[in-house]
Amino acid sequence: MSGVALKSIVKSYGETTVVHGIDLEVKSQEFVVLVGPSGCGKSTTLRMVAGLEEISAGEVTIGDRLINNVAPKDRDVAMVFQNYALYPHLNVADNIAFGLRIRKTPEIETKRLVAEVAKILGLEEYLDRQPKDLSGGQRQRVAMGRAIVRHPKVFLFDEPLSNLDAKLRTQMRAEIKRLHKRLGVTSIYVTHDQVEAMTLADRIVIMRDGYIEQVGTPMEVFNHPINTFVASFMGSPAMNQVNATLVKTEHGYCAQIGDRLVSLPQSQQLEDRVGKEIVVGVRPEYVSIVPLEGTQGVPIEVDLLETLGSEALLHTHVGDAVFVIKAETIDGLEHLHALKEIYFNPSRMTVFDAETGIALNHPTMN
């Protein structure tokens, strides 16, 4: 298998630059997800790897091979699009086999490969059906089968699940994960859905406005966002962010939120911010509704309670900031409606600079 390396990649349309010199290394057999809001440059980056967009500057290599000027068909990559792009007049078997026949693969070998892929994807009983007779999930499996059957060095996925309903997306995510585990092919996957990114990726690349904001494992970017953008984009619900003032007491650094002092994780990066505005970030999952030793409670007002079964989302306010809490419902809902204070565990908090948005206690900063 081969890895993919992007070195100082730029994409411009006339005087407008949409990808600004990004660097990224995808290791052999790794599953990397590019995620970000619409217009951040993730699909453009993928299309440059595929050869569907010309590279304005920089280099793309697959293995040890520079592919900047290599035709898409000769790059040994296979792409799965948001649009299934199946040939409506061909049955499932012929759709899967189409690329092999274009490459003049012997028919005996073509049939063997199609049967192999159909077994992997659970399409054996559908090989004689036309695309119009398939569900959305089945069509997407056919599209993946057409990519898999070529045994490419790299798989490229461009929002392949966007056209499916919620239940099918969940099923297809699991299938893609199992497929990657079985085949072990280097994969780059583009999505705007951070849940897909979290569940599928070995590493996540968060992009904004043509730049890479952060690269890390799902838990790294979830627990240690590099800035307020990543904190607000990754996670569902997003990380809560509350404006505060940094103060230093005999017990260490604290955030002053209203008239309460909340203990913070201790970091040498906080020393020169004492007395200045900061942003305190806390995930909804890590907010405590019971008192914690050594920390003051923060007053809240419960605006709305969303019941999700075993847990509930409490939509509240901390000062002027909207604040969401995820809590278990095993003890009923009455005490949640009556909640007046919440508590923060310092080890679960992120402290951001109010001006730059950069995380001051990120592991790379200490």
From TrEMBL:
Q: GTP-binding among the record's keywords?
A: no
One GO cellular component, as annotated = ATP-binding cassette (ABC) transporter complex, substrate-binding subunit-containing
The GO biological-process annotations, alphabetized, read as:
carbohydrate transport
Keywords per UniProt = ATP-binding, Nucleotide-binding, Transport
PROSITE patterns per the record? ABC_TRANSPORTER_1 (PS00211), ABC_TRANSPORTER_2 (PS50893)
A molecular-function term among this protein's GO annotations: ATP hydrolysis activity
Q: Is the keyword ATP-binding in the record?
A: yes
**For the ABC transporter domain, which residue ranges apply?**
4-234
**CDD domains named in the record:** ABC_MalK_N
Which is a Pfam family this sequence falls into?
OB_MalK
Name of the protein described by the UniProt record: sn-glycerol-3-phosphate ABC transporter ATP-binding protein UgpC
Q: Which organism is it from?
A: Alginatibacterium sediminis
Query: By which gene is this protein encoded?
Result: ugpC
